[in-house]
Amino acid sequence: MNKNTYSNRLMNNMKVDDLNHLVIGGVSAVEIAKKYGTPVNVYDLTLIKEKIKTFKNAFSKYENLTQVAYASKAFSSLALFEVLAEEDVSLDVVSGGELYLALKAGFEKSRIHFHGNNKSYEELKTAISEQIGCIVVDNFYEIVMIEKLVNELNVTIDILLRVTPGVEAHTHEYITTGQADSKFGFDLASGQVDQAIKQIKEIENINMIGLHSHIGSQIFEVEGYEIVIEKLLQKASEWKKMYDFNLKVLNVGGGFGIKYTDDDSPLPLDKYAKAIIRSVRTHSAANNLNLPEIWIEPGRSIVGEAGTTLYTVGTQKDIPQIRKYVSVDGGMADNIRPALYQAKYSGVLANKVVDLNEEVVSIAGKACESGDMLMWDVVLPQPKPGDILAMFSTGAYGYAMASNYNRLTKPAVVFIENGNDFLAIRRETVEDYLKLENSIKNWE
């Protein structure tokens, strides 16, 4: 097998150099592992910027304004937020911590949207005091808190109403959020949305500019978006007559699928945009509505494929006729998705990408859990201790969901662009634990 025939196993902006080493964004993955240690999360900034450009170009065909709001729950860091601010995108935050980081990064406040099903009073107070772009209101208790705050602070805030429209995406049940039985948003079928609109219309300092809906994640088709757009625009027409509600913004959420393995067949990003635009045009006209602004919230589809995690191979256990386990120096503490969602990944050995001596192995993490498995039954060159495993498409919900289980330290995060590398987040150390710890010996 030569480099050309092996290239179909690689992800975007990757190649194999003359040393048979994996190269990401012009930088050797082996050199990154040597310089920063492992595990290490590597992000190709060029690919992130290309994904943003694709979305923005596709939505620029729309007659009204659009916003591409990065869903920061996928991965957040000060450096990333600074990059996104330069790329002129908006930002979806879901906690006071993400909001704090965005403000520290100098993100334009008017382009910050605050989500969450259980926002605290203090979180809402910060968001309203800072006069961020909008709050995506999720429940009735939140309406009460916002009313109290806008009156107390004597300000006006824009909001979107999050609607659960009863549309289920074709995806894993744990990451499907548009169906009626969901912790998120106001249920459409039961009349909760009507009740919320009537309640909000009575509050002078809350300006309801639109609707929000998110139907799930890892979506490989456009029908779900088309169905929810049709349903919401029909209802918006009814609410205009009943409550004088003027729909200015329609936020259709995110969920655009990416490639983790060869089994995944995501659509080109502009295909999602074209379908959304077409559907909004069609159903706005059918319901005698002015074209609303279109907002989307891609997270995984911006950073997922841009991320690669590098691990060092350690011990092995070969069970004849059953399975060969190969352990690495990370696992569920830095990537919980395989254990939580049964997520599948692909990868290569970064220090010997092309090798005829291949075998089927399963990649185990080092946590004291039998479920700590990163990849099952993958074909790799015969792994040896010290080899560098590169696991692809780990840019979303890896570091963001990392933990210190077994007192493992969180990995470093490195950005790569134009052949250069930058340490965006340093590796956590065991000494960092002590910053939060108190010795009982000091208890008097």
How is this structure best described in words?
The protein contains 13 helices and 21 strands. It is an alpha/beta fold. The protein folds into 2 domains: 163 residues, Lyase, Ornithine Decarboxylase, Chain A, domain 1 (Beta Barrel); 257 residues, TIM Barrel, CATH 3.20.20. The strands form 3 sheets. Strands 4, 14, 15, 16, 17, 18, 19, 20 and 21 form a 9-stranded mixed beta sheet that branches. The protein has an 8-stranded parallel beta barrel with strand order 5-6-7-8-9-11-12-13, surrounded by 5 helices. It has a 3-stranded antiparallel beta sheet with strand order 1-2-3. Helix 6 packs across helix 7. The longest helix is centred in the middle third of the chain and has 21 residues. The mean pLDDT is 94.
The biggest beta sheet, please? 9 strands, mixed
Classify the fold: give the CATH topology of the largest domain.
TIM Barrel
CATH architecture of the largest domain: Alpha-Beta Barrel
Helix-strand makeup class: alpha/beta
